[in-house]
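Bug: token stream looks shifted between consecutive jobs. Job 1:
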Amino acid sequence: MKRERISPMIWVPNQLVGAPAGTDVTIDCHTEAYPRAISYWVYDNVMLLPTKKYGTETMENSYRAHMKLTVRNLQVGDFGNYRCISKNSLGETEGSIRLYGK
């Protein structure tokens, strides 16, 4: 049976996330795509790679994925707009999450 091709779709459970400075916060996106998509996080137009500052995790289940980004030791410069981006051969889409200080 041939699977239907799906251009990427993204759902963001919480588009507005507040956390106090000095804490760690995790934001997440859910994606669906077939063929499997390449998914990543962007902040200030820069792709985020796993570092001491950022923890990234993607749990995949066939054509669905749950993306998580943990921002550690939040500082004023970390507040703003984070984007989860998902792309495959059929297209590209993104979700947006605003992180603000409490």
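Job 2, same session, no restart:
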Amino acid sequence: MAYTWTLLFSLLPILSVCTASPLPSVEVMKRAKQLVVRLDEFQFPTELTTGALDYDFSGTKSIVAALERCNSPISESLEGVTQVKTELSSLISFLRQLRQCSEDPEPTPQDQRFTQSKTFESLKRTREYLQQLQQNLDNLDTC
């Protein structure tokens, strides 16, 4: 009987790793959907185009890099953008933890010369990227 309990407890770490694998993608999907809903609340100028998305989904590291490129030019001067940046930063942090990236990039001073059109472009690009991310969650690295 004692051996059974010992065996069971020794297998718990293995079982938790095996069963935890799909959970990060569920969390990323939830956060990405939440952000897309929030970004859909913005009224983008009709003439605004973002061009082709040049980001790849080859792994968590590339996803983090793409989201950082989306987040970086977004100015907080528009109403509601602070919440988007907070949630996007939270998603990036979650993905970093998933990837076990302990080093954070050097903080850069926020350039105050961003115009509203640049912010709208970045918000729209972020929304489009998050929509595509939801279709490519199988590329997330698992620990």
